[in-house]
Specification:
Elements (H helix, E strand, L loop, with lengths): L6 H26 L4 E3 L6 E3 L5 H11 L8 E3 L3 H7 E2 L5 H7 L4 E7 L13 E5 L4 H10 L2 E5 L20 E2 L12 E7 L2 E6 L4 H15 L4 E2 L10
Parallel strand pairs: 1-8, 3-6, 5-9, 10-11
Antiparallel strand pairs: 1-2, 2-7, 3-7, 4-5, 5-6, 9-10
Helix pairs in contact: 1-5, 4-6
């Protein structure tokens, strides 16, 4: 099958890429100045703000009408950035490289740099490393941002820009999200043990990885309780 690309098609693609680049630069500036951005990920659309700024995080809580008793996760763009905000057990490093980037939220022990407001005063923080180039491009420039779905708490997370009902300083349209459901949540904050807390995107593949790693590396076991499917990630 031969696909013909016209000059008009090429120009349209170039214009779209230029518009996206401008939007990304604006989004990066907004976050650096304490604002909020709605951005695409491979799971659902997220509401982003500077995760290490208490004032910026408070804006996210207000927009979502979320209780301060409920924590918010962090999105990073590299394993180096992950290590800046959370402690990783040596026995878990190999597993993380197989899971991330991807549609997983990993619960880890937070480092002091992470504000207590973000974790509801818990010592555990949720970490996302999105497999979405728009998201990671922003984070590479801004540092860690909030990783919570772009919806009012309790409502269905948006899979595309048309489903977003909340307001932010900037909204980036990245098309329909690949999975369209929240991430799978894994608790790695319990020493060498691992517990799956929520069934979400790519659950079967993630479970297979965890089962093979825990069996092969002699970890303290994998706990798979009765799983819940949450609306917020």
């Amino acid at each position: 099958m031969v696909v013909t690309v016209t000059v008009a098609d090429a120009v349209a693609v170039s214009v779209a890429m230029l518009e996206l680049e401008v939007k990304l630069r604006d989004a990066i500036s907004v976050i650096k100045n304490g604002g909020t951005v709605i951005y695409p990920t491979e799971t659902v659309y997220g509401l982003g703000a500077a995760a290490l700024s208490e004032d910026a995080v408070m804006k996210v809580y207000r927009i979502k009408r979320r209780s301060l008793a409920k924590p918010i996760s962090i999105a990073v763009s590299s394993f180096e950035m992950l290590a800046e905000v959370a402690h990783v057990e040596p026995s878990h490093r190999g597993i993380l490289t197989r899971l991330l980037p991807g549609p997983v939220t990993v619960l880890l022990r937070k480092k002091e740099i992470v504000p207590d407001i973000l974790t509801a005063h818990s010592q555990v923080v949720g970490i996302r490393f999105p497999a979405n180039r728009i998201a990671t491009r922003i984070i590479e420039e801004t540092g860690p941002i909030t990783a919570t779905s772009a919806n009012l708490t309790g409502e269905k997370p948006p899979r595309c820009i048309e489903e977003v009902k909340i307001k932010a300083d900037i909204i980036i349209n990245g098309g329909r999200c690949k999975y369209g459901i929240p991430s799978t949540v894994i608790d790695m904050a319990r020493g060498a043990g691992i517990r799956i807390e929520r069934k979400g995107a790519e659950y079967d593949r993630i479970l297979h990885i965890l089962q093979s790693e825990t069996a092969g590396e002699g970890l303290h076991g994998l706990s798979v309780p009765e799983l819940r499917e949450g609306r917020d990630r």
